[in-house]
Amino acid sequence: MIQIRNLKKRFRNNTVLDGIDLDINEGDVVGIIGPSGTGKSTLLRCINLLETPEEGEITVDGTAYSLSAHDRRQTLELRRQTGMVFQRFNLFERKTALENVMEGLVTVQKMPKEEARMLAAGELERVGMTEWSGHYPKHLSGGQQQRVAIARALAMKPKLLLLDEPTSALDPELVGEVLETIKDIASQGFTMMLVSHEMNFVRKVATRVIFLDGGKIVEDGTPREVFDNPRSQRAKDFFAKMHLLKQPEYTI
Fold first, then answer.
1. Fewest Cβ atoms closer than 10 Å to its Cβ: which of 49, 63, 170, 183?
2. How does pLDDT run along the chain (252 residues), one tens digit per residue?
3. What is the per-residue DSSP string for 145-185?
């Protein structure tokens, strides 16, 4: 069980997150959707302490962490519990795919290199990248680099996997391979929070969907409940606009 309480984040006079309360059960795949600028990515970055909120607390398996008043030790401990996959892959260019996955195991967890190598190889196999384990990032496609980044996050054995728009930096033809990888991981029981504009994918892979607007959670339910029967007018307007964007501008 992961609990987030009273999470507040402001940028100057703009309140991005306004008292977020959220309970996440083991195995939940929480899709986070909503209009641009409503704090979706900021929510993930606050959980991982890449942003420091003004208020907030997170509890992971009974251990509480302050998100607003934390020290280096607490930051490192929380990041061990929460793996992050970014929009950009953030791989070390001078390390192979295998070495990239090994890096956190050796430097953060102080794992012996041979043990780290075996674990990293297993995670690369999980995401279908064994064949490219000896390749450097410049020799990999964007989709392959993102799969290595996912393997790197999984190798740390996080209690919560955070995926921030994992396909937004990819060419359209490469999106499918990453989404399929995420779908496979979700089916294996990993607890995940996924920010994505891929509405159809969120609907298929998420066990739960939250809709953010104005720094608050205005919808929280199953994909069917949120997509088919939203309660808030804001969500209804959002989905109506998304539907219109899919329609052709004219017919012949």
1. 63
2. 899 999 999 998 889 999 999 999 999 999 999 988 888 999 999 999 999 999 999 999 888 988 888 788 888 888 888 899 988 888 999 999 999 999 989 988 889 999 999 999 999 999 999 999 999 999 999 999 999 999 999 999 999 999 998 888 788 878 888 888 898 988 888 999 999 888 888 998 999 999 999 899 999 999 999 999 999 999 999 988 876 545 554 444
3. HHHHHHHHHHHT--SEEEEESTTTTS-HHHHHHHHHHHHHH
98's CB contacts (< 8 A; 6+ apart) are 117, 120, 121, 124, 133, 134
Q: Is the pTM of this model over 0.90?
A: no
Long-range contacts of 227-233 (CB under 8 A, 24+ apart): 227/199, 227/203
For residue 98, give the nearest of 63, 77, 124 by alpha carbon: 124
Looking at the structure, give the CATH architecture of the domain made up of residues 2-246.
3-Layer(aba) Sandwich (3.40)
Which residues is 14 bridged to in the sheet?
11
Residue ranges of the domains in the chain?
2-246
CB of 87 within 8 A of CB of 55? no
Structure tokens at 80: 């061990």
8 Å CB contact between 9 and 51: yes
Residue 145 corresponds to which amino acid? Q
Tell me the three state secondary structure of residue 31. strand
